[in-house]
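Job type: complex structure
Entries:
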Amino acid sequence: MKEWFSQLDEKVYGKPLVYLDNAATSLRPRSVIDKWTEMSVKNNSNLHRAVHYTASKATEEYENARKQVADFIGAKPSRIVFTSGTTASINLLAFSFGECCVREGDEIIIAECEHHSDIVPWQLLCQRKKAVIKVLPVDETGHLCVDRLPSLLTEKTRIVCVSHVSNVLGIVNPISKIVDICHSRGVPVLVDGAQGIVHLPVDVGEIACDFYVFSGHKMYAAPGTGVLYASGDWLDRLPPYMGGGEMIGTVKWSGSTYAPAPQKFEAGTQNISGVPTWCPAITTAEALRRKDAGLSAIKEYVLEKLHSIGGLRLYGEPAFPEDKIPLFSFTVEGAHHEDLALILDKMGIALRSGQMCAEPLMDRFGVTGMLRASFAPYNTMKEAEYFIESLNKAISMLR
Amino acid sequence: MTLSEAKQAVVEDFSMYDEWLDKYEYLIELGKKPGPFPESSKTDEKLIKGCQSRVWLDSKVENGKVIFSADSDAIITKGIISLLIGVYSGRTAEEIADDDFAWLDEIGLRENLSPTRSNGLVSMIETIKKIANSLRDNG
């Protein structure tokens, strides 16, 4: 499968690239790049608008992608809104949900392990509506304190926002349990699936969450592609976020009516070339999941080796193997995360260092940043070994 | 040692290393040397913005020369700021303000550091220039 991802053949500073920054964005397989190019080379036309051949071809590709994404997560196509990514999905939701359902003094519960993109849009909403944010904490091992949730929920709680898997901790949050608790109190749940969708099978019917959002670029599709899934009649009840072409029923000076969902939320020209890459991306994701056995061995190996490094603290300690995706954020005593990242970079290893868009979580653990290695199914055990060996070398350079 | 001699000395030091890891070793050694920088001086005003790690830069004027001191929580960054103040500390404000900092390109520091670090380096240079400019204009 390595041959699907031509970037893996690249060299950096004369050394083979070892790409361990998959949680930031995945590499793109040939099939995705081909579809992307094909859409620009052969099928470029604006969607839905015209009667000519190419317009219907481009529209067909776009709507096929909607069907395939819907199938992938067990949803109906009419409940899938295409956006430019997870961030755009949450901003859309925070605005539209806020307009319809949030008033002064209302409360929004956000998990402590959330990415900035699941915090700041809600803060903006709270500023607009004079609503309040409450935080569902994580414990020392990086697990959500779900037992605290019932007491956080009040009659003023309007929505609970939680990631399927945190981009820092890698722990798989018990989202079904969270949804059960919230629904028993009549509170809807947004699940940020940006990391979860890459590594876990997702069936939105089974999870029963109200909203599930994710990005294409982290799961092999083109950048600038994203999804907002909403259950039941949510999309019919929420007002539009952006106004413009294609989202309307009729437009008069006296006022406008809107198209039914999902078009109501897809104003303006959409990502014509990018959206159709969902199809090869999903095919790739499914094929890679079937070959996932190698990744489990890598996860076990890296976990064991990291634990054996003196002064290393891992954030997100799994209670059992399936409790964590192959994503490891850590700090090392006497070795700053940025120094380690710089040295490892020159060894050919791409990692993430810093706050990882989760400053409140950094504060929670009392650190200014962390180093993160995140693996994808195309990473090999050899690369994992090289990473551990290089990390040890870098630490000894700094101490 | 004049300013141009000091710059030349660093350029020569760096030219001995072919590999970037060796250059990092050099910066790490420099960064490990404890500089006199009191914890009480690590204030937000002395923090250089735009770096991934935290870098503090302080300055004072003694006998018409600008004396810099600096610290960082990351060693390579501390090595880089030490390199900079090793060259510019003890110079007049005019000398620093008029310098083009081109020697940093000669040793490849600017292009060989990751973008975030490169931004950090740019911020360090700008802060040094700003201090020199304001001392020159007010002095």
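Summary: Chain B touches chain A through 17 residues (CB under 8 Å). Residues 115-138 of chain B form the longest helix (24 residues).
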